[in-house]
Amino acid sequence: MDKEQTLIFGIRSVKEAIDSNKSLNRVYIQRGLKGVSAFDLIKTLHKKNIEISYVPIEKLNRFTIKNHQGVVATIAPIKFLDLNELNELIESKKKSVSLLILDQLSDVRNFGAIVRTAECTGVECIIIQSSGSAPVNGDAIKTSSGAVFNVPICKVSHIKDAIFLLKQLNVKIYGASEKADNNIFQTKFKNSQALIMGSEGKGLSNAVINLCDELVKIPLEGKIESLNVSVACGTILYEILRQKKFNS
């Protein structure tokens, strides 16, 4: 496979790529693949005149050892926004903007799950750092159920650069941290806001904490002292959405 291509796999991920008007180079489908979802995908591929290769499952397994569901496709690499494009995106929003910043979150499956939740809660851009962040690869695409095609992703050299820009644009910065005094239910989130989630093991770095306008935490009632980062992120994003929809 060409190094300038990205591999995606799974029926839903490929269908989402098509619906998002991504340019698929070729779709490989397992010979004899059955099922309503597979039939609908093949029908769509024919309608869009996308090239299909029917291959034995052994070839798909050589592409990836993951659960490909009998479907693998290649696309051009995902295009990331830069800081200038992020600036333009925010300024194009007349009333408010909802952003998510991931501070060196490195687990691909957590990243994919977070992107999926972000898409469902109306996040308009996800900001990641060039180094130390989870790769946006086939695993991430499949875990997100193709949501990476619907949410712009901005890649920056340093998270701090993005935070400084957002502050200039009057976007309030909330950091998720166990060090917070107030929990998310005691916090009134602003219409234009960015939530920062830290890495799986270390949470937010001290440098990033110092740049936050406010820290928030999730109240925990059990013996376990923390949530998985993707679960925590989803909890906070839905509280932000609840306030936006029902407290405005």
Question: How would you explain this protein's 3D organization?
Answer:
The chain has 248 residues and is of the alpha/beta class. The protein has two domains: 6-75, Ribosomal protein L30/S12 (60s Ribosomal Protein L30, Chain: A), CATH 3.30.1330; 83-246, SPOUT methyltransferase, trefoil knot domain (Alpha/beta knot), CATH 3.40.1280.10. Helix content is 36%, strand content 20%. It contains nine helices and eleven strands. The protein has helices at 11-19, 36-47, 57-63, 83-92, 108-120, 138-143, 159-168, 206-209, 229-246; strands at 6-9, 24-30, 52-55, 71-75, 98-102, 125-129, 153-156, 172-176, 182-183, 193-197, 214-217. The strands form two sheets. The chain has a seven-stranded parallel β-sheet with strand order 7-6-5-10-8-11-9, sandwiched between helices. A four-stranded mixed β-sheet has the order 1-4-2-3. Strand 2 (24-30), helix 2 and strand 3 (52-55) form a beta-alpha-beta unit. Helix 5 runs parallel beside helix 9 (229-246). It is elongated. The model has no long low-confidence stretch (mean pLDDT 90).
Q: What is this structure's SSE topology?
A:
Elements: E1 6-9, H1 11-19, E2 24-30, H2 36-47, E3 52-55, H3 57-63, E4 71-75, H4 83-92, E5 98-102, H5 108-120, E6 125-129, H6 138-143, E7 153-156, H7 159-168, E8 172-176, E9 182-183, E10 193-197, H8 206-209, E11 214-217, H9 229-246
Parallel strand pairs: 2-3, 5-6, 5-10, 6-7, 8-10, 8-11, 9-11
Antiparallel strand pairs: 1-4, 2-4
